Amino acid sequence: MADILGVSQSTISRELKRGMTEQVKLVNGKREHYESYFSDVSARVYQENRERSRQKGIEKYDQVFFKLLPEQLKPPKDELRIHSVDTFTHQYQKDNPDKRVPCTKTVYNLIDRGELDVRNIDLPRKTRLRPRRKKPTDTHGTNKRKLGRSIEERDSAVLTREEFGHWELDLVIGKKTKGEPVILTLLERQTRHYVTKKLWDKSSEYI
């Protein structure tokens, strides 16, 4: 049967166990007890078990929190709503550090499953939770686009200014206006000779 339905044998076993009901019949004037499977009984037992599991999940948290949450998210029409799920949860945790309060994601999951007196339509804005990106460990940072060797890799002679012919290039860019010229600056490190030139294109090919 499991192969025909495409499920595991344990799934079939659990289904049969939930739906088995004791029956009684008369055989030659005597009562005989036997078990028979009923799909409606299995469905009812499944829903009852699921409901008990849900209640147990909610009951482990502070019940006052779940009582106040709908009041904060669904105020009367003449009152302004000042809380979202996130702000109320954090405020309640701060005010009740000794209470067991669910996190924001757990509250959203309970709302999605219909286990609270709050629906998604009642929420001002459902925050999409995303994991935080890890910051790069490189203290110098990482350029998004590498156009050549880093300035930190230049020869030590450049730093001491002992040799002639090492130039520093820079661009001075004004307001971001279309057609605005830029100023090219060149500085020879040993002599400190300084050259400037106006350019109408700042592309690397033009320069």
Automatic annotation (TrEMBL):
GO terms for molecular function: transposase activity. One of its GO terms (cellular component) is cytosol. One of its GO terms (biological process) is transposition. Residues 124-151 are annotated as: Disordered. It comes from the Bacteria. Residues 126-135 have a biased composition (Basic residues). This is Helix-turn-helix domain-containing protein. It comes from Halolactibacillus halophilus. The lineage of its organism: Bacteria, Bacillati, Bacillota, Bacilli, Bacillales.
